[in-house]
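Regression test attached.
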Amino acid sequence: MPEVLDVAVRLVVIVAAFLVLPLVAGQMEHKVMAHMQARLGPMYAGGFHGWAQLIADGVKFVQKEDVIPAAADRRVFGLAPGVALVPYLVVMVVIPVGPGLVGVDLDAGLFFVLAVMGIGVLGSIMAGWSSGNKYSLMGGMRSAAQLMSYELPLVLAASSVAMAAGTLSLPGIVEAWQWWWLPWQAIGGVVFFTAGLAELRRPPFDMPIADSEIIMGPMTEYAGIRFALFMLAEYAGIIVISALTSVLFLGGWHGPLLPGPVWMLLKVFALVFVVIWLRVSYPRLREDQLQKLAWAGLVPLALVQLALTGVVRVLAV
Amino acid sequence: MTETVPSYLSPTGQEIVFLLLGAVAVGSALLVVVTRQLVHAALWLVLCFGALAGCYLVLTAEFVAWVQVLIYVGAVVVLLLFGIMLTRAPIGRAADLDSGNKIVAAVVAIATAVVLVTVVVDGFRTAYAPLDSATGSAKELGSAVFRNWVLPFEALSVLLLAALIGAIVISRTDIRGRD
């Protein structure tokens, strides 16, 4: 009985985190962007900085008519938001927040995370194809191209940490982490974070969405709750990438004075802030620049990091 | 693999899940071939690979399962979809997806399946491997590949490298063959 209770509590906590953290990230994005661009946005709903506007938006999304274009492939169109969202929920199960505070400690947790995150992009490809809209189709194609080029640096950078720690389990990696890994794995960290951003199709890597040329890419035909699910998937993705970067490269729950989970949350939200900051500061990369950055920039850097990790590992141990 | 074979009449939970996943894999694989919609075929392939990964998981080969999802679903199917969308991706049924060779193809497929199943059943009839979670872990797998099976591994690497170089040579227009 205690085991069942233990599993149940863990699942409830993870689902709660999944429902709350992306919303916090979303609200943070609205507010941080507003202040960086010296505009306020909704400030009155709920009192402090208009926090209740988010709830009002949610209610509005639920009330909207569920529109499916006549030319769409209805089944795939309906399935796509779920395929985009669920993988991030599943990934949260294996992300450790503190010593022992993890949904499941998988033996190959790192590969599990990378594999499942790749499925999320399938949702946007499915949406792009099934909408029966040429802009959506172009968005879907760009998503696919982007996933194929950025998956490789992502996996290479992540394997460098796995090599350093000698394990593929995420809690195991955090336990093995020491402060001097920060400079040692710095290149890998930057590559991982950048490639993660590209996999989420966040600005400056938002060529698949590119609102000024292909409207909203794969999401063009979506409205109401289905569109809200895509947005939720995006924010959940930001949380997952930030959490993974903290776990792999910033030492997860390690830190002085404060308790472990607090450090983890601090690191995650600092990275979320960086994600938003990048969106506000950089213009969108063109498709060819995007591919060039992945193949001529990130992949060689990730290989350099892998070689560095190997050399230090062999010399030090 | 020398344990005595347990009775088939009282299957364990693992065996039942394995059979169900196998049924899903075979069913979705059939749909890949039978469906008249090109993109649906690729999406059924996702389900097929997913069920196959589930089979590996039941057999405690966790690492292989995740790599299967990472490579086949995350890369191969995405590449397929990209290729389909780049060339033609009609919504709805495509009339030209039916082949005149379908009877011959079915006969060949069934014959291949019969041969493979017969060989496997005949070869491993009495072999029984107990499932314990240590044998499929990344560590065990790594040491097996790089200690006992390093020669096939290296041979495969060279093969893949050759294919890679070949692909580069074919796709680059500034490299010409000797006339």
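Expected vs. actual: identical. Chain B touches chain A through 27 residues (CB under 8 Å).
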